[in-house]
Specification:
Length: about 300
C-alpha cells in the first residue's frame, strides 16, 4: 500500500492512515483531495428565503441558467441538492458541501443543456451546550416541498425536478421521494438511506443510489442485503456500491476531520461528475457521468 506524495511527519499526523487501508490492494494508494477546485462558482447562486410553518424561515440558494447565458425560452431541469449534517452552518459554502457547486461550471452546464440548481439549508445552530440542533428531520419535508413549488411557480422554464444529496441529505432525499413521488423525475441519494428505500422502486422516478462499502458511518451496512437485491433488480434504479470510493486520480479517498470520513463522502465523487481525471466514468452505466444522467432524465 502506497501513500501518494512525499509527506512530512507533520502531514502524516494530519493524514492518519485509516482502518480500511488494510483492505487495499497491493500498489494501491490513498488520495487526500478531490481534483476539482471549489468556491469558484458560489457567486452564481442567489440567496432566497421561504417562511415555513413547521421550521420557520428557511434559506436557500438558486442558480438560474437563464441568467447565465441560456435562453429564457428553453426548458431546463431543476436539480435540488440536500446537504449533510452540520454543513448549513457554513452558509453559502454549503452549496459546495451539498454537491451542487461544480454543476454551475459553464462546461457542465453546456453538457446538461442548462439546469437550475437549488440548495436549501437546514436551520442548524449550536445550542448553549455546543450541541448541533435543528438539523434535517421529517419536519422539514413540507418546507422543502414549498421551496420547490415556489421555484417552479417563479421559473416557467423548469421542465422537471430531481433531488439528491449525501449522508443526511441522502436520508432526506428518500423521505422526499417517498412523501411526494409525483414531484420528481429523478433522485440521486448517496451515502444515506431510511427504512423505506424500496418504496419507489419500479416507479417513474429514475434513481441513482451510490454508497461505498467501507463507508465509515455504516451507511452501506444499513441498506441490508434484501434491499440491495431489490434495488439491483429494479428497472428504474442504478446502484453504485464500489469496494472503495476514489478521487479523480484513482486513489482511495480519505478525508480526516478529527474522524476519518473519506469513504462516507460520496458527494465529492458526484461533484466530480463521476468521471475520473483521465475521462473514464466511475459508473459504467453512466458513460457521460452525472451531467449525462441529469441531461437524459
Amino acid at each position: 500500500m502506497l501513500l501518494k506524495g512525499d509527506f512530512s511527519e507533520e502531514t502524516k499526523v494530519d493524514h492518519v492512515v485509516p482502518e480500511w487501508a488494510k483492505y487495499m490492494d497491493e500498489g494501491d494508494f490513498i488520495s487526500y483531495m478531490p481534483s476539482y477546485v471549489g468556491n469558484k462558482y458560489l457567486d452564481k447562486f442567489e440567496e432566497l428565503k421561504l417562511m415555513s410553518e413547521e421550521k420557520g424561515e428557511i434559506t436557500y440558494y438558486l442558480y438560474d441558467p437563464t441568467k447565465n447565458g441560456f435562453s429564457a425560452d428553453g426548458k431546463y431541469p431543476l436539480l435540488m441538492f440536500i446537504h449533510g449534517y452540520t454543513n448549513a452552518m457554513d452558509g453559502i459554502k454549503c452549496v459546495g458541501h451539498s454537491g451542487a457547486e461544480m454543476f454551475a461550471d459553464p462546461v457542465r452546464q453546456e453538457k446538461m443543456g442548462g439546469a437550475y440548481l437549488l440548495v436549501p439549508l437546514a436551520n442548524e445552530r449550536r445550542n448553549e451546550n455546543g450541541e448541533v440542533v435543528d438539523s434535517w428531520d421529517e419536519g422539514y419535508l413540507p418546507g422543502l416541498k414549498s421551496i420547490i413549488e415556489k421555484t417552479l411557480s417563479e421559473n416557467p422554464a423548469i421542465s422537471k425536478v430531481a433531488i439528491g444529496g449525501g449522508s443526511s441529505g441522502g436520508f432526506m432525499t428518500w423521505n422526499m421521494i417517498n412523501a411526494y413521488p409525483e414531484m420528481f423525475a429523478g433522485a440521486f441519494p448517496v451515502s444515506g438511506c431510511n427504512d423505506d428505500i424500496c418504496k419507489c422502486i419500479d416507479t417513474h422516478i429514475m434513481i441513482l443510489f451510490a454508497c461505498s462499502r467501507y463507508d465509515e458511518f455504516g451507511a452501506f451496512d444499513r441498506i441490508g442485503e434484501e434491499n440491495i437485491k431489490k434495488l439491483e433488480a429494479a428497472s428504474n434504479v442504478i446502484t453504485y456500491f464500489p469496494k472503495f470510493l476514489r478521487n479523480g486520480d484513482g486513489g482511495v479517498a480519505s478525508l480526516y476531520f478529527g474522524i476519518e470520513m473519506g469513504q462516507h463522502c460520496m458527494i465529492t465523487q458526484l461533484q466530480a461528475d463521476f468521471i475520473y481525471d483521465d475521462g473514464t466514468p466511475y459508473i459504467p452505466e453512466l458513460p457521460d457521468g452525472m451531467t449525462g444522467w441529469f441531461r437524459d432524465l
